[in-house]
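Pipeline run #58 for the internal structure catalog. This entry was flagged by the ingest filter as a single-chain record with no existing model, so it goes straight to prediction. Upstream metadata was stripped on purpose; only the residue string is passed forward. Reviewer on rotation: M.T. Logging verbosity set to normal.
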Amino acid sequence: MTRPTSLPLAPSRRAFLHRSAQAVLLGGALGLAGRPARAAAPSVRSLMLDHTHTRERIDLVYASGEQYLPQALGSLNHFLRDHYSGEVGQIDPQLFDLLHRVRQTLGSGVPLSYQIISGYRSPLTNARLRDTRGGGVASRSLHMDGKAIDIRLPGVPLAELRDAALSLKAGGVGYYPRDQFVHIDTGRVRTW
């Protein structure tokens, strides 16, 4: 199982692991008779994430074609755990696809690694934050269901990140310029 590691992860090792995972996933396509390997290769989806609170980094392939990779999903669940309590929740795989699509929308000239402010949040943590943040935390936050994440992308203006997420019309998008993050979720389409 791929586990998050503490920062900094040596770039050559990270690149090696990323390429190795892709090679394993794509290797099966080479044996298909009568088709060029490139045409038969499944679409591979990957993420690079840096957690601002735990100082961990993860870089992995989480899906190949229509199939999510269970080990990768487990690693992402652990990585996006409640950083206050350590409780691990089940993250909606569609949230990973949403992050992947936002990156694609922004294009290839932007940094690859998202900074994560908040992923899963336990009900107890959510209640505590709601009591101490003056109403800035929803009582039925989708963070508690593993369907929301707060992010930024270094080098990309926050408004541009927000606009990329909005353009997908795939869930909720919250814009928090004072706190320097964008909230995205897989709930109903809405904005604030």
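catalog note: The domain at 5-191 is CATH 3.30.1380.10 (Muramoyl-pentapeptide Carboxypeptidase; domain 2).
catalog note: The longest helix spans residues 11-27.
status: ready for reviewer M.T.
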